[in-house]
Specification:
Blueprint lengths: L4 H17 L12 H8 L3 H13 L3 E4 L3 E4 L2 H4 L12 H19 L5 H19 L3 H19 L2 H8 L2 H9 L10 H14 L3 H18 L6 E2 L10 H8 L3 E2 L2
Keywords: DNA-binding, Transcription, Transcription regulation
GO molecular function, one term: DNA-binding transcription factor activity
InterPro entries: GntR_C, TF_FadR/GntR_C, Tscrpt_reg_HTH_GntR, WH-like_DNA-bd_sf, WH_DNA-bd_sf
Length: 253
């Protein structure tokens, strides 16, 4: 690279940042060694170290002396720390919810009474109002109540106990996507899709809508995780076709 030192560093920052945002280097992953990266980008180790320091200042990576450079969760890149990192990762939290709540929604669709549908409808509209007002805490509480109500309708006490026992963790995972201000009403629209499937007593559609919601909420928080082909895709499409349409990766197990 025959440019000024700053231009070389800026170019390296842009390349590494793009790879992080495209999940070439996913959240939690360790970047290649500095020697490998420097050779790949055809820059000096000194310029690479400067680029990595810039990325650390941006919250994109964490430099751990003697251990390597690791990609931060997007919650950190948004300036919002994941408070429960010492208990469970944010990615694991969303994957747990994907597994439990999609199943619960399928069962709930066959158990929801008209009164329960009315309650869920009121909850969804109240959450919309809180989001419009910028009241993230109230929106997160209503979000949690919506999901817990559906789990309750499913009638699986073990799943309900897991979620109730992790109330603060689950609520925090629901709050983080709201910090993407331009997408703040996405949760509302996704809840409407779940509610519509419940109203139609369509278990397959309810489960798929719930799984799609959790995958997209995770992505708004910067977490991308593969959907095993053994599970229905959030869109209801075959896994590989779903990956092409939605960009949600799929892995063959």
């Amino acid at each position: 690279m025959k440019h000024s030192a700053h231009a070389v560093t800026d170019a390296a920052v842009a390349i590494i940042r793009e790879r992080i945002e495209r999940q070439v280097y996913p959240a939690g992953a360790m970047l290649p060694s500095q020697r490998q990266l420097a050779e790949e980008l055809t820059i000096s180790r000194a310029s690479l170290r400067e680029a990595l320091s810039t990325l650390e200042a941006l919250g994109m990576v964490a430099i751990r002396p003697g251990k390597g450079v690791y990609v931060n969760d997007a919650s950190a890149r948004l300036g919002v720390a994941w408070r429960f990192a010492d208990q469970i990762s944010l990615a694991d939290t969303y994957q747990l919810r994907y597994a439990l709540e999609g199943f619960s929604a399928r069962l709930a669709a066959h158990a929801a009474s008209n009164g329960e549908i009315e309650w869920l409808t009121g909850n969804v509209e109240a959450m919309k109002g809180a989001l419009i007002d910028g009241d993230v805490d109230t929106a997160a509480q209503l979000d949690f109540a919506f999901h817990l109500r559906i789990v309750g309708l499913a009638g699986n006490g073990a799943i309900a106990d897991i979620l109730r026992g992790s109330t603060e963790i689950v609520m925090e995972s629901q709050r983080l996507p709201f910090y993407q201000r331009e997408l703040v009403l996405s949760t509302y629209h996704e809840h409407l899709e779940i509610l519509d499937a419940l109203r139609r007593r369509d278990g397959a559609a309810a489960g798929a809508a719930m799984e799609r919601h959790i995958v997209l909420a995770a992505q708004r928080a910067g977490i991308h995780f593969p959907i095993p082909s053994a599970y229905p895709s959030p869109s209801g499409l075959p896994p590989r076709e779903n990956a092409e349409r939605t960009g949600v990766p799929h892995v063959q197990l």
